[in-house]
């Protein structure tokens, strides 16, 4: 297939989708002269260089999707002029620097995704302005914690994904008002303390990943997690291995914790579970030495499926 350059693109409509067109080169500043452009998607191309500041002149822009390219440099503060923007997707590029303060003006945002970049600095407090946001993805950056407390204001969130923060530790932020939360991924975010009860009571939850933190306490009573993918490895959780984990029909990883006991319920011999439960190095002691030795020797507890 022919490789196109952005400088060859002469015709843009109000909805310009140039996804997977093998486009190389840089994004031309002249795109800023298209004041009526609403949607610009250049996902999965070979674009290099920075985002031109002139893109901030397209005040009608509602979607700017530049994921999976080779873009780099700092994020232009001028993008903060795009107050009609609903989707800003910049993941899988090579951006550096911090998120500009002007991004706090983007109060119409429904999605902000910039995972996989080399962004630095603290997660800005102004994300509390994004009250309409449903998807916030800051995975795999070089940003610092803690997660701002005013993230609790984002009550429309359905997917919250943050990982690999440096800096100081903190408790899990208050997410109780996020009634529509489906994906909660706060992996390697220096989170301490116990997991609040309301997390297990979030009926919309599908994925819970709080792996590689410093969480403590007992999770035995979180029975509502039986139909949720639960990833809690590499924490400091204690108490008995929960029965709901044995009955869970999704993936469960409780490895590398400090659980003290495992009691298999009588019904565990026949469960509609297709995924194994990972408990490697998660168990400290058992009154029966032989059982303890056998348990530590196996990475998973496999549940016999019902015929």
TrEMBL record:
One Pfam short name: LRR_14
Any single Gene Ontology cellular-component annotation: membrane
Organism listed in the record: Salix viminalis (Common osier)
Membrane topology: Single-pass type I membrane protein
PANTHER family: LEUCINE-RICH REPEAT-CONTAINING PROTEIN DDB_G0281931-RELATED, PROTEIN KINASE DOMAIN-CONTAINING PROTEIN
Chief site of localization: membrane
Protein name: Disease resistance R13L4/SHOC-2-like LRR domain-containing protein
Record carries keyword Repeat: yes
């Amino acid at each position: 297939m022919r490789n196109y350059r952005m400088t060859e693109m002469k015709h843009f409509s109000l909805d310009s989708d140039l996804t997977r067109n093998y486009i190389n080169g840089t994004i031309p500043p002249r795109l800023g002269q298209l004041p009526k452009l609403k949607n610009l998607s250049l996902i999965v191309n070979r674009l290099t260089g920075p985002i031109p500041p002139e893109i901030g002149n397209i005040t009608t822009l509602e979607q700017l999707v530049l994921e999976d390219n080779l873009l780099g440099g700092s994020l232009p503060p001028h993008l903060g002029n795009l107050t009609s923007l609903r989707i800003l997707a910049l993941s899988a590029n090579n951006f550096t620097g911090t998120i500009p303060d002007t991004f706090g003006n983007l109060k119409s945002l429904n999605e902000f995704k910039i995972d996989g970049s080399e962004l630095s600095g603290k997660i800005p407090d102004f994300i509390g302005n994004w009250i309409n946001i449903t998807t916030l993805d800051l995975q795999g950056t070089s940003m610092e914690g803690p997660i701002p407390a005013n993230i609790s204001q984002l009550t429309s969130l359905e997917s919250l994904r943050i990982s690999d923060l440096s800096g100081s530790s903190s408790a899990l932020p208050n997410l109780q008002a996020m009634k529509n939360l489906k994906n909660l991924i706060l992996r390697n975010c220096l989170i301490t303390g116990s997991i609040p009860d309301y997390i297990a009571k979030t009926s919309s939850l599908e994925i819970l990943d709080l792996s590689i933190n410093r969480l403590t306490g007992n999770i035995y009573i979180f029975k509502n997690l039986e139909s949720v993918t639960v990833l809690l490895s590499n924490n400091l959780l204690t108490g008995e291995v929960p029965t709901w984990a044995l009955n869970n029909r999704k993936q469960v990883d409780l490895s590398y914790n400090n659980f003290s006991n495992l009691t298999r319920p009588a019904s565990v011999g026949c469960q509609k579970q297709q995924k194994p439960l990972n408990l490697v190095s998660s168990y400290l002691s058992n009154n029966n030495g032989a059982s303890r030795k056998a348990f530590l020797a196996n990475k998973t507890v496999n549940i016999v499926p019902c015929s």
